[in-house]
Amino acid sequence: MPTSDRGVASLFERAGESDAAEAEGAALARIGPNAVIQTGQALASRYGSGVTRLIYEAAGLARYLGNPPHAMIDEREPKALFTALRQALPAQEADHVLTDAGLRTANYIVENRIPPRARKLLPKLPPALASRLLVSAIARHAWTFAGSGHFEGRVRGWREPVVILSIKANPLATPGCPWHGAVFQGLFATLTATHVAVVHPRCQARGDDCCEWTIKAATGPQPQV
């Protein structure tokens, strides 16, 4: 059972992605393309292609319709898309779309970016250990969803673990950060085999100094992310 830093790195090793390429992506303030791709899919499923096109055009991203990005993108692009989305739709509807997009992103990461042996092993481990391994893996690749922001993650406790994640200078912050919250909900619920509750006590878009999420096992109806 890998618990050392080397073991964690080995567990989540992804073929074809070098540390140099990752460092370059971070230095250029780039972010993973799924913030754009999955938001488009969530929009299309809820409102159809016409509304999706209008919002992408407003964000200056119409070129991605029918030709989605396959590599890291400028973090300003999903930021523009999230802004255009919130300007075009009522706040609650925009949050529904961003939540759906976040869950789709989490599903994509699990299916395509988490090695099969890690997908099989993590849900079988005690939640406290699985959470620590997952936080370590997320921290190593945090720029894929945090861009130029500064990510920190830690886990408190063993019997009832509490995960605390934060992003300072979060480039994709929106009120309540439904996209990020849904990404974290999907990842931890799937890979720790635990029904989780995600709470967002601090939000940069609401005037706090950073965005922070608390994730723990849910004991009742799960609050919206």
TrEMBL record:
It comes from the Bacteria. SUPFAM superfamilies: Ligand-binding domain in the NO signalling and Golgi transport (SSF111126). Residues 162-217 form the 4-vinyl reductase 4VR domain. This is Bacteriochlorophyll 4-vinyl reductase. It comes from Rhizobium wuzhouense.
